[in-house]
Amino acid sequence: xxxxxxxxPSPEIHKSSLTDGPSEPRAPGSSALKRAFQCxxxxxxxxxxxxxxxxxxxxxxxxPMGQVVSSDELVARLGEPGPVTVETxxxxxxxxxxxxxxxxxxxEAKAHGLTSGDEPIHIAMHVLRHPTRGVYLVDTGVERAxxxxxxNALIRGFVGSAMNVDAMKVHVDTASYLAAxxxxxxxxLLTHLHVDHLTGMRDIPNQVPVYLGPGETEARGFMNLFVQxxxxxxxxxxxxxxxLQYARDPAGRFAGVIDLFGDSSVFALWVPGHTxxxxxxxxxxxxxxxxxxxxxxxxAWGWEHDVEPGTFSNDPDESVVSLxxxxxxxxxxxxxxxxxxxxxxxxxxxxxxxxxxxxx
Length: 360
Ligand SMILES: [Zn+2]
Fold this sequence. Notes:
alpha/beta
């Protein structure tokens, strides 16, 4: 689940008219017991419906882009300057619950006294400029409506309140950024399909293809009752979501690796856990490699202390593995510049993380 607040309260089924009659004597507490069983039966009937809702009903298709490679090929090129530039645009500041961003049950989090509460974060997009393939966006920033027409913004109303959208302060919207820089994107590379990564999607022309990891629309859950409509609205009018066709990384560093342009300039790394298809992107620039991890790690504290994301993630165990894999890559190649999902890593943190001992 993405950065949403607690689910809506359950319907007040305890106050239904299914109460017992007044005449028959019964053991104390039996009516309460009966109501409890009725509630359970109702929940049992509704639960499959409530949890069977997908993230999105938007169509998907296999991505024709890129070729599967071993992470050995990526590692072999890390020392060489590359042709792509990366600009990280911080579109907005926001505030969400730390418990979603960091696993507060982790011993390290407990040792540091981390507790639930507001954590300042940002929403970003990364602008990748390739000398011959054009401009690609990693994630989407924030649409203009969040600045100028909040009543019609992608996240609004009840869901907007639940997601604390009033706390969002927009610095630059995607439409304005693209116009000011005369950018016509050739593609959007999503790190994953959560709504806080789609907030700028409606500012991007519909003909621009959207790529992402596998299985992103398929996750089931109660909150998708609210999220699916927003996700579908963000994608309305666009072509099918193009799923990257990963295969197992023979070198075992990641779940899968794809050389997106076939020239070793930009790699997609499959890092499942936060979501099934979560993808990090590594771009080789003239100044060295830049690694955009998406929400495999939201926060600087999580990266520095090797603590995986919290309740926002689908699969906590996979989240641990994927974060460890990304940190191991950076530990072995400390010149990699890391861009986190929702915070900026201080320069000294790169050095500290690179001193992390390698794990088996
Ligand atoms: Zn996010």
